[in-house]
Amino acid sequence: MFAKKSLGQNFLIQPQISIDMVTSAQISKEDTVVEIGPGTGVLTKELLRTAKKVYAIEKDDRLIDPLKETFKEEISSGLLEIIHDDVLKTKPPTEPYKIVANIPYYITGKIIRHFFDQTHQPKSMTLLVQKEVAERVIAREGKESILSMSIKIYGTPHYMKTVKAGNFNPVPKVDSAILHISDISRQNFENISEEHFFTLLHTGFQSKRKKLSKNIKELVSPDTFETCKIPLDARAEDISLENWVCLSK
After folding, report:
1. Which residues are bridge partners to 169 per DSSP?
2. CA 9 remoteness from chain centre
């Protein structure tokens, strides 16, 4: 089965990475799991060995019948359900669930935001993403970004492991990483508006070289910077999640 470039497919071929992902996600027989893009089923196989129930969402028409044939016993027993659809158009299960997936690099941000926006958010997300993206999410170099703040407002990201390009077919041009996002909730929005927070965040990062106080001067007064203990010469990439929440309040 050749990979479709238009779908951003890089099939996982190393079973050990599947084991590492399941371990990172802390999957047990009590867990319902949503897998995005099962591909040839390497990760699916490990999830079925460890989870209570797996929903596998696959967009590629060519893969549906092979997946149904490979896992016909698990489908028959109710352990696995194959959902033939675009993940960005699907609704998650209503019971508590975790996401474990090797996702297309080009829609990483859209997939994460899609599930954060759901009424029933996942308990956690364990994703294979570009190494550079995972490093940006955890702000490895000490500089935050729209992506890192958009994730940290909902959960806690962890860089679990680097995954070399040779573990995929076709071999991508860059290495990947296992990114685990735990403790997902909306608790940070108990006293602030999600819409207002993201308006502030995007405005703050609009001109990265400018001081944050200049970027958001129409939204926040200088007194608020003092209240939130943020230097007036700070840039958006320099301040913490707690600072953004304080500014939003």
Report:
1. 11
2. 17
